[in-house]
Amino acid sequence: MSTPTVFDIIVIGAGPAGQKAAIQGAKANKRVALIERERGIGGSCVYRGTIPSKTLRESALHLDVLKRASAAFEFNLRPDTQIATLLGRLEDVVKAHDTFMSQQLRRNGIFLFHGRACFVNDRVIEMQTVDGASQRFTADTIVIATGSRPRNPPEIPVDHEHILDSDSLLSMIYLPRSLTIIGGGVIGCEYASIFSLLGTQVTLVDQAPAPLQFMDQELVRQFITIFERQGGHYLGGQKVREVHWDGAAHVVTKLGSGMTVKSEKMLVALGRQANVEDLNLSAAGLQATAKGTLPVNQFCQTDVPHIYAAGDMVGAPTLASKAMEEGRRAVRHALNLPVGDAASTIPLGIYTIPEMASIGLDEKSARERYRDPLVGRAKFEEIARAQISGAGHGLLKMVADPDGERLLGIQIVGDSATELVHVGQLALQSTATIESFIDNVFNFPTYAEAYRIAALDILGQVAKRRSAKAA
Ligand SMILES: Cc1cc2nc3c(=O)[nH]c(=O)nc-3n(C[C@H](O)[C@H](O)[C@H](O)COP(=O)(O)OP(=O)(O)OC[C@H]3O[C@@H](n4cnc5c(N)ncnc54)[C@H](O)[C@@H]3O)c2cc1C
Predict the structure, then answer these.
(1) Cα–Cα distance, 22 to 30 (Å, whole number)
(2) I want to staple 148 with a disulfide (CB 3.0 to 4.6 A). Which of 28, 272, 315, 353 is the partner?
(3) What is the pLDDT of residue 1?
(4) CA distance 326 to 316
């Protein structure tokens, strides 16, 4: 049987966005081609991003539990510990993921091709395979989901041996004794706290006074306190003037303040850059923005109505969860299926140690929109579950309207924050009242109890406001 070349939908890129787009198309009984340049499917999420970093994090958390039990066990990490040892489960995780995803594509009758795709025109795609062969495919709808890669500025000589980026970091053989991380975004902060917990001397450098500027800064302060208590060091308000490998033992980082930082390795974590260069976008009548992303509307539709783009390549937030939803959404719109409202409430999950999460409005944006919102706080120290786990530090902030009736947002730092935030997400989507958190019974002991404590805090403030008004 010859390979089909005419499809209803062609999806370029088999990361989270592309996969969900392809599956959505197939579920609507469309003939779908999925073109992926790598041998494996899953994108940077599976091979270089989410899954590897979270697997290393899990090892760090296990080691931390052992260290904390030092009264009972004598425990020390060997000085020559190899990264591969700490990533022991990664191969199994990736294999299981790959098998599951391949079965899913096969089950749905999706045609998977391996090769590099580019536009010939707005309905024709050419695919080059590694052996130099090329093939052309046509479709009425095309979804671009080619993802992103680390943004490495030319003045920083990333050599992937001493000066690494997030794609190459975990190819280090040994756990470094010291690590400088440039960039206080999500990836920089996550790796800073993971390596710090593993015993590496970490210096995190950023030009802003505090990292993660888009997050509630009260949460970020808690994170920094715990990171520094762990032995890490945050250097804020710093411009990086020069970075070089001294040819012997150190990466040397010269800062605008005159300070010099030396470390065995460096991670450059200065954001992501969309993969658009190979696509020959102009042949399809498309143009990337100055930032290098592809502009789309709320349905992920580009300026050419039958061409869609989803995932990292359309810009921030660069999250696998958002990429999947965009892939699904793009194809549903293309097929005239109900799309639903664009999620105005995408949860943010940051796997730092301790982790952070956010949904809806934070205190600062609520103040900008409402004159005087109410903010309830629940400190994890007050919660039995946190006391039992020994990971006692944390905070849940509940943001409500000035009457203390309507929930506007939730921000959490601490153990299980990325899971816990989904309670807030459902509450926001169902326009739950603050009182409903008090009317409900939560399991004991759980972190979820924090919702009740924060809600009680808000209702206490409402009562005070009322009596102040009445007086
Ligand atoms: C260190 C790190 C940690 C992260 N942690 C998290 C996390 O905890 N939670 C979270 O939600 N997100 C996390 N992310 C982000 C997440 O990995 C991305 O948001 C997600 O992978 C984006 O999905 P995508 O489908 O848009 O792109 P990608 O996953 O990048 O997939 C794009 C695919 O397109 C292919 N491709 C590119 N060009 C072509 C072409 N011309 N032809 C054919 N194929 C092509 C690529 O090979 C790739 O397989 C992390 C990222 C990093 C780097």
Answers:
(1) 9
(2) 272
(3) 52
(4) 12
Cis peptide before 150 (omega within 30 of 0): no
Which two three-digit tokens encode residue 337?
């299926």
Q: Tell me 366's DSSP state.
A: H
Report residues of the chain scoring pLDDT below 70. Answer: 1-2, 70, 341-344
Which residue has 């495919």 as its token pair?
137
Q: What is the DSSP string of 326-357?
A: HHHHHHHHHTT-------S---EEE--SS-EE
Strands 178-182 and 265-268: parallel
Ligand 1 atom 30 nearest Cα = 147
Q: How far is CA 105 from the centre of its chain?
A: 24
- What is the model's pLDDT at position 344? 63
Whether residue 189 has its Cβ less than 6 Å from ligand 1: no
The pLDDT value given to residue 222: 96
CA of 39 to the centre of ligand 1 (A): 15
Identify which of 36, 37, 44, 321 to mutate to test ligand 1's pocket (most ligand atoms within 8 A of the CB).
Answer: 44
- How far is Cα 445 from Cα 466, in angstroms, rounded to an integer? 33
Question: Whole-angstrom Cα distance, residue 336 to residue 23?
Answer: 16
Q: How far is CA 47 from the centre of its chain?
A: 14
Report the alpha-carbon distance of residue 264 to residue 287 in Å, rounded: 41
Residue 159 half-sphere exposure, CB side, CA atoms within 13 Å?
Answer: 12
Omega before 317 cis (within 30°)?
Answer: yes
**Residue 255 confidence (pLDDT):** 96
Angle between helices 417-429 and 449-470 in degrees, nearest 10: 50
Q: Which helix (H) or strand (E) holds 448?
A: none
Ligand 1 pocket, 146 CB below 6 A?
yes
Q: Is the pTM of this model over 0.90?
A: yes
Question: 200 CB under 6 A from ligand 1?
Answer: no
pLDDT tens string 158-197 = 999 999 999 999 989 889 999 999 999 999 999 999 999 9
Encode pLDDT of 251-276 as tens digits. 999 999 999 999 999 999 999 999 99
- Residue whose Cα lies nearest atom 53 of ligand 1: it is 49
pLDDT of residue 328: 96
35 lines ligand 1 (CB under 6 A): yes
Query: Is the minimum distance from the CB of 145 to ligand 1 under 6 angstroms?
Result: yes
Q: Whose CA is nearest to atom 17 of ligand 1?
A: 45
Ligand 1 pocket residue status of 311, Cβ below 6 Å: yes
Pocket of ligand 1 contains residue 347 by CB under 6 Å: no
- Can you give the length of the chain in residues? 471
Give the Å distance between the CA of 47 and the centre of ligand 1: 9
Instruction: Give residue 299's pLDDT.
Output: 94
| Residue labelled with tokens 């460096």 | 266
Q: How far apart are CA 282 and CA 130, in angstroms?
A: 24
Give the pLDDT of residue 48.
Answer: 85
